Protein backbone atom coordinates (compact mmCIF):
# COMPACT_ATOMS: atom_id res chain seq x y z
CA UNK A 1 0.00 0.00 0.00
CA UNK A 2 1.51 3.35 -1.09
CA UNK A 3 1.41 6.19 1.45
CA UNK A 4 2.06 8.81 -1.20
CA UNK A 5 3.67 9.48 -4.54
CA UNK A 6 7.15 10.47 -3.41
CA UNK A 7 9.55 9.08 -0.84
CA UNK A 8 12.92 10.63 0.05
CA UNK A 9 15.64 8.58 1.74
CA UNK A 10 18.91 9.68 3.30
CA UNK A 11 21.86 7.63 4.52
CA UNK A 12 23.79 10.14 6.60
CA UNK A 13 22.49 12.50 9.26
CA UNK A 14 24.38 15.27 7.46
CA UNK A 15 21.96 14.87 4.53
CA UNK A 16 18.89 15.67 6.63
CA UNK A 17 18.89 19.36 5.70
CA UNK A 18 18.81 18.52 1.98
CA UNK A 19 16.21 15.83 2.59
CA UNK A 20 13.96 18.26 4.47
CA UNK A 21 14.37 20.82 1.72
CA UNK A 22 13.28 18.30 -0.92
CA UNK A 23 10.44 17.13 1.32
CA UNK A 24 9.14 20.68 1.75
CA UNK A 25 9.33 21.75 -1.88
CA UNK A 26 8.34 18.52 -3.62
CA UNK A 27 5.75 17.30 -1.14
CA UNK A 28 7.49 14.02 -0.39
CA UNK A 29 8.01 12.04 2.80
CA UNK A 30 11.49 11.84 4.30
CA UNK A 31 12.87 8.59 5.69
CA UNK A 32 16.14 7.10 6.80
CA UNK A 33 16.62 9.04 10.03
CA UNK A 34 14.69 6.92 12.51
CA UNK A 35 15.06 3.15 12.51
CA UNK A 36 14.08 0.25 14.71
CA UNK A 37 16.65 -0.99 17.20
CA UNK A 38 19.15 -3.24 15.43
CA UNK A 39 17.83 -2.40 11.97
CA UNK A 40 20.26 -1.15 9.35
CA UNK A 41 19.46 1.81 7.14
CA UNK A 42 19.35 -0.50 4.12
CA UNK A 43 16.94 -2.88 5.83
CA UNK A 44 14.70 0.01 6.78
CA UNK A 45 14.67 1.26 3.19
CA UNK A 46 13.78 -2.21 1.89
CA UNK A 47 10.77 -2.38 4.20
CA UNK A 48 9.48 0.98 2.89
CA UNK A 49 10.39 0.64 -0.79
CA UNK A 50 6.86 -0.32 -1.86
CA UNK A 51 5.32 2.61 0.04
CA UNK A 52 5.88 5.12 -2.76
CA UNK A 53 5.64 5.27 -6.53
CA UNK A 54 8.75 7.44 -6.79
CA UNK A 55 11.92 7.81 -4.74
CA UNK A 56 14.67 10.37 -4.33
CA UNK A 57 17.74 8.76 -2.77
CA UNK A 58 20.20 11.24 -1.25
CA UNK A 59 23.37 9.16 -1.48
CA UNK A 60 26.12 8.04 -3.80
CA UNK A 61 24.97 6.13 -6.88
CA UNK A 62 26.93 3.05 -5.80
CA UNK A 63 25.13 2.95 -2.46
CA UNK A 64 21.79 3.37 -4.23
CA UNK A 65 22.52 0.38 -6.46
CA UNK A 66 23.24 -1.78 -3.43
CA UNK A 67 20.09 -0.55 -1.67
CA UNK A 68 17.96 -1.48 -4.69
CA UNK A 69 19.42 -4.97 -5.04
CA UNK A 70 16.65 -7.54 -4.89
CA UNK A 71 13.85 -4.96 -4.75
CA UNK A 72 13.21 -4.36 -8.44
CA UNK A 73 10.65 -6.60 -10.15
CA UNK A 74 9.46 -5.16 -13.47
CA UNK A 75 9.87 -1.77 -15.12
CA UNK A 76 6.12 -1.49 -15.58
CA UNK A 77 5.51 -1.45 -11.81
CA UNK A 78 8.83 -0.49 -10.20
CA UNK A 79 9.01 2.99 -8.61
CA UNK A 80 10.96 5.64 -10.46
CA UNK A 81 14.23 6.34 -8.62
CA UNK A 82 16.36 9.48 -8.75
CA UNK A 83 19.71 9.68 -6.98
CA UNK A 84 21.23 12.98 -5.88
CA UNK A 85 24.55 13.39 -4.10
CA UNK A 86 24.75 15.46 -0.93
CA UNK A 87 26.72 18.14 -2.77
CA UNK A 88 23.84 18.57 -5.26
CA UNK A 89 26.08 18.07 -8.26
CA UNK A 90 24.00 15.54 -10.19
CA UNK A 91 20.39 14.35 -10.13
CA UNK A 92 20.44 10.95 -11.83
CA UNK A 93 17.38 9.14 -13.20
CA UNK A 94 18.54 5.69 -12.09
CA UNK A 95 15.46 3.46 -12.45
CA UNK A 96 12.11 3.87 -14.19
CA UNK A 97 13.02 6.74 -16.48
CA UNK A 98 9.84 6.49 -18.53
CA UNK A 99 7.42 4.19 -16.75
CA UNK A 100 8.27 5.46 -13.28
CA UNK A 101 8.64 9.11 -14.28
CA UNK A 102 12.24 9.32 -13.04
CA UNK A 103 13.43 11.34 -16.03
CA UNK A 104 11.07 14.22 -15.30
CA UNK A 105 11.63 13.87 -11.56
CA UNK A 106 15.37 14.27 -12.13
CA UNK A 107 14.69 17.64 -13.77
CA UNK A 108 12.44 18.72 -10.90
CA UNK A 109 15.15 17.84 -8.40
CA UNK A 110 17.83 19.52 -10.51
CA UNK A 111 15.81 22.71 -10.95
CA UNK A 112 15.23 22.88 -7.21
CA UNK A 113 18.82 22.23 -6.12
CA UNK A 114 20.96 23.54 -8.98
CA UNK A 115 22.18 20.04 -9.82
CA UNK A 116 22.76 18.79 -13.36
CA UNK A 117 20.01 16.37 -14.47
CA UNK A 118 21.40 13.10 -15.80
CA UNK A 119 19.11 11.09 -18.08
CA UNK A 120 20.54 8.06 -19.88
CA UNK A 121 17.40 6.68 -21.53
CA UNK A 122 18.41 6.36 -25.19
CA UNK A 123 15.24 7.91 -26.59
CA UNK A 124 15.86 11.04 -24.49
CA UNK A 125 19.64 11.27 -24.08
CA UNK A 126 20.26 10.99 -27.81
CA UNK A 127 18.06 13.92 -28.70
CA UNK A 128 20.52 16.62 -29.82
CA UNK A 129 18.69 19.93 -29.45
CA UNK A 130 18.12 22.32 -26.56
CA UNK A 131 15.79 25.26 -27.12
CA UNK A 132 16.57 28.28 -24.97
CA UNK A 133 13.51 30.40 -24.20
CA UNK A 134 13.00 33.92 -22.93
CA UNK A 135 9.69 35.73 -22.93
CA UNK A 136 7.60 38.61 -21.69
CA UNK A 137 5.56 37.96 -18.59
CA UNK A 138 2.27 36.10 -19.12
CA UNK A 139 2.63 35.20 -22.79
CA UNK A 140 0.36 32.42 -24.02
CA UNK A 141 1.27 28.83 -24.79
CA UNK A 142 0.32 29.59 -28.41
CA UNK A 143 2.95 32.34 -28.53
CA UNK A 144 5.56 29.95 -27.11
CA UNK A 145 4.63 27.24 -29.60
CA UNK A 146 4.65 29.57 -32.60
CA UNK A 147 8.10 30.91 -31.73
CA UNK A 148 9.55 27.44 -31.22
CA UNK A 149 8.06 26.21 -34.49
CA UNK A 150 9.51 29.17 -36.38
CA UNK A 151 12.91 28.58 -34.80
CA UNK A 152 12.88 24.90 -35.76
CA UNK A 153 11.78 25.72 -39.28
CA UNK A 154 14.68 28.16 -39.63
CA UNK A 155 17.19 25.35 -39.06
CA UNK A 156 15.14 22.60 -40.76
CA UNK A 157 14.77 20.57 -37.56
CA UNK A 158 11.79 18.98 -35.82
CA UNK A 159 10.20 19.15 -32.39
CA UNK A 160 11.00 15.46 -31.80
CA UNK A 161 14.72 16.38 -31.68
CA UNK A 162 14.32 18.70 -28.67
CA UNK A 163 15.80 17.14 -25.55
CA UNK A 164 14.81 19.94 -23.21
CA UNK A 165 13.66 23.52 -22.93
CA UNK A 166 16.03 25.78 -21.01
CA UNK A 167 15.28 29.13 -19.43
CA UNK A 168 16.52 31.27 -16.55
CA UNK A 169 15.37 30.31 -13.07
CA UNK A 170 13.62 33.68 -12.78
CA UNK A 171 11.21 32.42 -15.47
CA UNK A 172 10.54 29.17 -13.65
CA UNK A 173 7.01 30.20 -12.77
CA UNK A 174 6.10 31.19 -16.33
CA UNK A 175 2.93 29.17 -16.84
CA UNK A 176 3.00 29.13 -20.65
CA UNK A 177 6.49 27.60 -20.73
CA UNK A 178 5.50 24.95 -18.20
CA UNK A 179 2.30 24.18 -20.09
CA UNK A 180 4.18 23.79 -23.37
CA UNK A 181 6.67 21.40 -21.80
CA UNK A 182 3.88 19.36 -20.24
CA UNK A 183 1.85 19.22 -23.44
CA UNK A 184 4.74 18.00 -25.56
CA UNK A 185 6.49 15.88 -22.94
CA UNK A 186 9.70 17.91 -22.93
CA UNK A 187 11.60 18.50 -19.65
CA UNK A 188 12.13 22.06 -18.44
CA UNK A 189 15.64 22.99 -17.32
CA UNK A 190 16.08 26.09 -15.14
CA UNK A 191 19.49 27.76 -15.32
CA UNK A 192 20.51 29.87 -12.29
CA UNK A 193 20.94 33.55 -13.10
CA UNK A 194 24.21 33.48 -11.16
CA UNK A 195 25.58 30.98 -13.70
CA UNK A 196 24.35 33.07 -16.63
CA UNK A 197 26.15 36.07 -15.14
CA UNK A 198 29.38 34.07 -15.05
CA UNK A 199 28.97 32.73 -18.60
CA UNK A 200 26.74 35.11 -20.56
CA UNK A 201 27.50 33.67 -24.02
CA UNK A 202 25.30 36.04 -26.01
CA UNK A 203 25.77 37.15 -29.59
CA UNK A 204 24.12 40.45 -28.74
CA UNK A 205 23.42 41.79 -25.28
CA UNK A 206 19.91 42.89 -24.32
CA UNK A 207 20.00 46.20 -22.40
CA UNK A 208 16.42 45.68 -21.21
CA UNK A 209 17.13 42.23 -19.78
CA UNK A 210 20.34 43.47 -18.17
CA UNK A 211 18.57 46.42 -16.55
CA UNK A 212 15.79 44.24 -15.15
CA UNK A 213 17.66 41.09 -14.21
CA UNK A 214 21.39 41.79 -14.31
CA UNK A 215 22.11 39.27 -17.09
CA UNK A 216 23.10 39.89 -20.71
CA UNK A 217 20.43 37.64 -22.17
CA UNK A 218 18.35 34.52 -21.55
CA UNK A 219 17.71 32.21 -24.48
CA UNK A 220 21.24 31.90 -25.94
CA UNK A 221 23.19 31.35 -22.70
CA UNK A 222 20.51 29.00 -21.34
CA UNK A 223 20.55 26.88 -24.49
CA UNK A 224 24.33 26.57 -24.33
CA UNK A 225 24.58 26.05 -20.58
CA UNK A 226 22.08 23.18 -20.79
CA UNK A 227 24.36 21.26 -23.16
CA UNK A 228 27.62 19.46 -22.46
CA UNK A 229 29.43 20.35 -25.68
CA UNK A 230 26.85 22.43 -27.48
CA UNK A 231 27.02 24.99 -30.27
CA UNK A 232 24.43 27.51 -31.34
CA UNK A 233 22.78 26.52 -34.59
CA UNK A 234 20.24 29.34 -34.29
CA UNK A 235 20.97 32.69 -32.75
CA UNK A 236 18.20 34.45 -30.89
CA UNK A 237 15.06 35.17 -32.83
CA UNK A 238 12.25 37.18 -31.22
CA UNK A 239 8.64 36.77 -32.23
CA UNK A 240 5.60 38.22 -30.48
CA UNK A 241 7.19 38.53 -27.05
CA UNK A 242 9.10 35.22 -27.14
CA UNK A 243 12.84 34.80 -27.77
CA UNK A 244 14.22 31.44 -28.91
CA UNK A 245 17.73 30.15 -29.55
CA UNK A 246 18.69 26.58 -30.41
CA UNK A 247 21.85 24.75 -29.41
CA UNK A 248 22.90 21.35 -30.71
CA UNK A 249 24.89 18.83 -28.71
CA UNK A 250 28.20 17.99 -30.39
CA UNK A 251 28.91 14.28 -30.17
CA UNK A 252 32.19 13.34 -28.53
CA UNK A 253 32.27 9.95 -30.27
What is the strand and helix layout of this fold?
Layout: E1 4-10, H1 16-26, E2 29-31, H2 41-48, E3 52-58, H3 61-68, E4 80-84, E5 90-95, H4 102-113, E6 116-118, H5 122-125, E7 129-135, H6 141-154, E8 162-168, H7 175-184, E9 188-191, H8 193-198, H9 207-213, H10 219-225, E10 230-239, E11 242-249
Parallel strand pairs: 1-2, 1-3, 3-4, 5-6, 7-8, 8-9
Antiparallel strand pairs: 4-5, 7-11, 10-11
Compose a concise summary of this entry.
This protein is α/β, with parallel strands linked by helices. 34% of the residues lie in helices and 26% in strands. The strands form two sheets. The protein has a six-stranded mixed β-sheet with strand order 2-1-3-4-5-6, with helices on one face. The protein has a five-stranded mixed β-sheet with strand order 9-8-7-11-10, with helices on both faces.
What does this structure look like?
The chain is α/β, with parallel strands linked by helices. The chain contains ten helices and eleven strands. The strands form two sheets. It has a six-stranded mixed beta sheet, with helices on one face. It has a five-stranded mixed beta sheet with strand order 9-8-7-11-10, with helices on both faces. The N and C termini lie far apart (45 Å).
Amino acid sequence: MQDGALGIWVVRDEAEKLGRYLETHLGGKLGGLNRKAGETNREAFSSHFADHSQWILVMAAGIAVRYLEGLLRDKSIDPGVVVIDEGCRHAIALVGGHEGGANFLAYRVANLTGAIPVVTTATEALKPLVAGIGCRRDVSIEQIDAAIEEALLAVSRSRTEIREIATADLKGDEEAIRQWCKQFGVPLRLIPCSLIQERPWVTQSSPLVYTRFGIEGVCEPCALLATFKGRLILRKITRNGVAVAIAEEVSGI
